[in-house]
Write a structure and sequence with these properties.
- The chain has about 450 residues and is mainly α.
- About 70% of the residues lie in helices and about 0% in strands.
- The longest helix has 29 residues, at about 225-250.
- The termini are far apart.
């Protein structure tokens, strides 16, 4: 398997992919100063390099202390890239402390993050090569590149710079699993654990992965399946365990991040106040690029005015109405359970209907590119060649789990849908190959002598 992944032709393809992406990054992409979540991750990286401790900067006059408000892997990676790029701490502090006009000093970081994206694209090439061959692999990489995510995110200090390449490697491991089950079982364990350390909600994917391998062991009862399960568990414990132990030492419990699920869940539950008319309109309004224009032109404002993110939206009102209300009655540790029992289990049908609409919104990663990917995936999963169909169904399990999770307990925005990029890219490559096959002229039969 290693010989096929690193054959001379594949290495040449990897070099072409990385060269093209770097040229795009150097000459075409604009640099954006860090804002919002990016400043938060930059704050962690600054303190890691300044104090050697993971935590956010305290308010003036308070002592610095360790924290766990976010997962650690991206801040650690960012702190490493800042050192490798020789960025001065003073320049970083200017951004973190919001001192006004600050010089953009993250060009080197953008290039290192481009390296991560190249790893993701090369993993997609390898997955496409196993499914289609080299032409399909090239089309897979082209489709994913056209999403813009592999060149846009390196210019931003966000977790997607790890999430995207990791889900690409996870996709390769799923496709290649049958060729060398032990090797790729370990790869599945490593990538899922790293995803957890990047965004903690991926812990549910890790649990699903462990359950899958437990099911394989129960069904097959072979030494090989036992080894596969042991490898997944070992990789998970080795990678996640130290962070859980650190949190237990500092905070008295091994939770990967501090509890802020109540606020996120309150934001999600607010959408359950949508009328059925608003739910129906949402399927049009949330269609990328022109869906909102259609609803605004044809319908009264009451059907769409609260579907965005302005101060009057369901998203904003949820924090005020549900989070603040429940915070008066429950402590943060108990709030999630109270919200689930009262607001979700109390009206599961309405919650499911609204979740379907939110899942629709989250599926459109990279706007219209995501729409094309969604329809391509649906078409190829039912009508594509057998090998492609089988692989697409297997690949779809992980992002589908995450999209259901985002829609049921979070606000499910397209940015969270980056885990769908490999599925969409492979499906679009399958559609392109089907079109090329139809356009190829049929061989002319020679006349009988």
């Amino acid at each position: 398997m290693a010989e096929r992944l690193f054959s001379k032709r594949n290495i040449f393809a990897y070099a072409l992919i990385c060269g093209f992406v770097f040229l795009t990054q150097v000459f075409l992409e604009e640099r954006q100063p860090p804002v919002a979540d990016a400043l938060r991750y930059l704050d962690y990286a600054f303190n890691l390099n300044e104090h050697g401790v993971f935590g956010l900067s305290p308010p003036p006059g308070e002592a610095f202390s360790p924290g766990r408000a976010n997962a650690p892997l991206y801040p650690w990676t960012l702190s490493l890239f800042l050192r490798l790029s020789d960025v001065a701490q003073g320049d970083v502090a200017c951004h973190v402390q919001r001192q006004g006009q600050c010089a953009y000093v993250f060009q080197g970081v953008a290039l290192w993050q481009t390296v991560l994206m190249c790893v993701g694209l090369c993993a997609l090439w390898a997955a496409g090569n196993l499914i289609f061959g080299r032409l399909g692999a090239g089309l897979t990489v082209l489709a994913s590149y056209l999403s813009g995510e592999f060149t846009d995110f390196p210019n931003e200090l966000l977790t997607e710079n790890l999430t995207i390449p990791l889900v690409c490697v996870l996709t390769l491991a799923i496709v290649a699993f049958r060729t060398s089950t032990r090797t790729w079982a370990a790869a599945l364990g490593v990538t899922s654990a790293l995803l957890v350390l990047t965004r903690p909600e991926f812990i549910y994917l890790t649990w699903a992965l462990i359950a899958t391998f437990c099911g394989r062991l129960f069904m097959l009862r072979t030494r090989r399946t036992a080894v596969e399960l042991a490898l997944v568990l070992l990789c998970t414990v080795v990678l996640i365990g130290p962070w859980a132990v650190r949190n237990y030492v500092y905070f008295g419990d091994p939770a990967l991040t501090q509890t802020y699920g109540g606020k996120v869940l309150a934001e999600r539950i607010s959408y359950n106040d949508m009328s059925l008319g608003e739910v129906a309109v949402a399927f049009v309004h949330w269609f990328p690029d022109f869906g909102d224009s259609i609803t605004e032109r044809l319908l009264p404002s009451r059907f769409y005015e609260r579907l965005g993110f302005d101060p009057n939206s369901y998203s904003a009102v949820g924090v005020q109405r549900y989070y603040d209300d429940y915070l008066h009655r429950w402590d943060p540790e108990q709030m999630v359970g109270a919200l689930i029992k009262t607001e979700i289990l109390g009206n599961p049908i309405k919650h499911g209907i609204v979740s379907a609409a939110l899942m629709w919104r989250g599926a459109f990663v990279a706007t219209l590119w995501g729409a094309l990917g969604l329809f391509s995936a649906g078409y190829m999963m039912f009508t594509g060649p057998p090998r492609l169909r089988t692989n697409l169904w297997r690949i779809a399990l992980a992002p589908s789990l995450m999209m259901v999770l985002y829609a049921t307990v979070s606000v499910s925005i397209p940015r969270y849908g980056v885990c769908l990029i490999p599925l969409y890219s492979l499906a679009m490559a399958g559609v392109a190959l089907a079109i090329l096959a139809r356009l190829r002229p049929a061989p002319v039969e020679s006349a009988a002598p």
